[in-house]
Amino acid sequence: MTTQTATSSEPTTLTDNPFALFAQWMADARASEPNDPEAMALSTVDAQGRPSTRMVLLKGYGPEGFTFYTNFESRKAGELLAHPEAALLFHWKSLRRQIRIEGPVGPVDAATADAYFASRPRVSQIGAWASDQSRPLDARETFEDRIREVEARFAGVNVPRPPHWSGFRLAPRAIEFWLDRAFRLHERRRYEEDGAGRWAAQMLYP
């Protein structure tokens, strides 16, 4: 297979390194998307196999996987812990490109979660303590009261990471790149990992 390097002026899905291509497309998105180029749709399933999808933010990526953070008492975390397989979707409208990623999911280690939590704005750290994510809320005022309570509790000190808040990393088994082409004659290429770290590519009909 001939290796090509993706550039902003000559987009391509042809490469022998899907992670390098992902990094190039992410760089292009950061230069062109007006808001949150790291936003991705995360799909999980519940105990009955019913799917659920929501937007989360990518916070790290590489051959080891794609990382995001959440409240571990949330619906998505509960589904991931019970059924540790997921799918991610990036769609960059400004570039007319998308990437689909599938694979097993596992929690990040405590040191990684601590380091990321410490990098968050203090208001976001406070919110992680105040929010019972995905649980019923009787009124917005209740949440705001809890935020004030947490602010008072940690006044003058660093906010520690809550024990119920951490991250997940999806280890990719398959990565599919999609390029918009005229008249819906799009370009699709799927990369699959063989279990030993080697990636094979296959063009797909659009």
Number of strands: 10
Count up the helices: 5
CATH architecture: Roll
Q: Order of helices and strands, N to C? A: HEEEEHEEHHHEEEE
Estimated share of beta-strand residues: 25-35%
Describe the structure.
By secondary structure, the protein is α+β, with helices and mostly antiparallel strands. Helix content is 27%, strand content 33%. It has one domain: Pnp Oxidase, Chain A (Roll), CATH 2.30.110. The chain has 5 helices and 10 strands, in the order H-E-E-E-E-H-E-E-H-H-H-E-E-E-E. Strand 8 and strand 9 form a beta hairpin. Helix 4 packs across helix 5. The longest helix is centred in the N-terminal third of the chain and has 15 residues, at 18-32. The model is unreliable at 1-8 (pLDDT under 50).
Characteristics:
elongated; 206 residues; 5 helices; alpha+beta; Pnp Oxidase, Chain A; disordered N terminus; 33% strand; ten-stranded antiparallel beta sheet; 10 strands
List the helices and strands and how they pair.
Blueprint: H1 18-32, E1 39-45, E2 51-57, E3 60-62, E4 65-71, H2 75-82, E5 85-92, E6 97-107, H3 110-119, H4 122-130, H5 140-153, E7 165-170, E8 174-179, E9 187-193, E10 199-204
Antiparallel strand pairs: 1-2, 1-5, 3-4, 4-7, 5-6, 6-7, 6-8, 8-9, 9-10
Helix pairs in contact: 4-5
